[in-house]
Every structure is written in C-alpha cells, then in structure tokens.
Amino acid sequence: MMNTRKFLILAAISLGLVTSCSDDDDTPGEVLEEELITDITVTLTAEGADAVLLTVNDPDGADGPDAPVITTSGSFKANTVYTGSFEILNKSEEEPENVTEEIEELAAEHQFFFVAKDVAITTAYTDTECDYTTEACDAATAKPVGLAFSLTTAEAGTGTLRVALRHEPNKDAEGVAAGDITNAGGGEDIDVTFNVTVE
User: What pTM was computed for the model?
Assistant: First the structure.
C-alpha cells in the first residue's frame, strides 16, 4: 500500500520590498507550504552484489485518482550489508524539485523508519541531524534522520520492507531513535511497502 502524503515544508514568508516598524506580534513569521512527492528512489548498494532499487512513481500524488507504481528492481544477496540512500522528487513542476534537499534542511523535524516483515532484513541509521546543518550541533545528543542508512540481510526468503517518513516525530519517545515507529507520532509524509527478496 502506498501513501505519499504531501510533504510539509517550513518556509519563511517573503515580505518583498515592504518594510515595517510595527511591533504587532500577531504577524506570522512562518507558514507551512505543501510539497508534492511524485517520485521516490531508494538505492541500495553492496560490494560484490548487484544494486537494488526501490522506486515509487505517483505523478498525481497521494490525493490523485491514479494508483502509484511501486517497483523493486533486483534481489538482495543473503548475508550482505548494503548502503542505502534516497532521491525524493516533485516532478509535477516544469523544473523538478529535489525534495531530498528540503528534508535535509529540516532534518531535525524528520525521520525515516524501516520495517521488515517475513524476511531476514535489519536496518540501522548511518546519519544524524548534525550531518545536515552548518550550525553548532552536539553529536552526542543528535537524533537520526535516515536519509542514509545500512541494510543487512541474513538467510534467503521473501517478504516486505515498509519505508515511512514522519514529519515532526517525537524523537525522544521510547525506541524512536533506534528506529521503532510505534511511539513516533508526527505527520505522515511517506508510507510505502515494497515486496523484497533475499537470495
């Protein structure tokens, strides 16, 4: 099942050439803009194994009438560690927008989750919020994001891998920093399940 909800982007309101000396505290400084997600590619590579691509193509977005096309290209090799990365795009515009970069800019407000079912696959985060900021960041307390991750296979089998992106999850809740989505809360930006095979 696919559910690529419209991605919430935090953006400052542009005031153009207008300047003001008003002290009106009711004037908003930020608004939430919706960003459509039409294409997702998860690339998984490992030494000595063919790459595996998990892709979603949903030109009209989650709210459109057409069902998305969800594809798994290739099989995983048993007992192998893969490196995972994302490319997330909005191709509904004449100039495609790189939503991945926008997630990086708001890394502290986002986290991916990976849930394998009926297949011997485990995942681990290989990034933190500190990887996406130029500001001071305490690596000891930084939380994961999941744009970069590792995927480890064990014995052969078939099952599913759910990939979910939460907006403003509770990263301090029990198990969340370790990748457990149960207590994460937050809004649902992406939630898609791929059929996968380990050989």
Answer: 0.84
